[in-house]
Amino acid sequence: MKINKTITFWLLAVLFLAALLLAQQMLKQQGSGLIPGNGGDFTLQSVDGPVSLHDYRGKVVALYFGYMSCPDICPTSLWNLSSALQMLTPQQAEQVQSIFVSLDPERDSPLAMSLFVKGFGDRFVGLTADKPTLDKVARQYSVVYEKVPLKDSAMGYVLDHSSVIYLIDKQGVVQYFTPHGTAPEELRDDLVKLIEED
Length: 198
Hints:
By secondary structure, this protein is α/β, with parallel strands linked by helices.
């Protein structure tokens, strides 16, 4: 009886791994690192009013979630994206819109966001919203984040969050997601692929 349970366990484990590998291969072929169905349209607030992903239909969108007080991860990712954009020709760069979504609406107002993103380039827009709306969009894009209190700190708290740049094609579909630390050259290459797609 114990042998049968062991065989069954290993058989299920092998089947699970095979299914996982097959799913990963299918996602790779599709170009998306997200579970199918994730991503999609959203509407958040900019300093100039509501902004939706579909407003940029016809452009490639680079989307990043973080917050302004982030000590190192967000600035690094945003600088890498900014550097990748600078490697594009002016004609290519014109076809890209970068969006930085703040997950910290308590501290990051739309006005503060608009000033913050200017430090990374003219092709950035800063968006945020109330927490329920941000939670919904975060779930859409498989973004994980959590408020972590800081004792004896003027900051009060930090946000632990996943750090991914989502590259979205001209039809509004996520095609690539690039983890933290991806070199600007790799980002540029993926952007160019999407820019050149018909």
